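Fig. S4 source data, part A: sequence.
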Amino acid sequence: MVSMIKKFFRKQRHKRYVERYLSDLRWDCINTVVSASATGFHNGTDRHLDAIGCLIRKYERRIRLLKF
């Protein structure tokens, strides 16, 4: 019984961590777009936004899987 409770709390901690990281990624994406619109989009900006987009998709999938 104790191991089930530990497993539950570990999963809850991980969900909080993933949600916090996903929130940070979303804000990073918004900040990048705002700053790039002021200074101009470059090749590095495009690659950075693509990488952030892939990470957001990855962690949204992970959150969906953690619901079970």
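Fig. S4 source data, part B ends here. Residues 19-66 form one domain.
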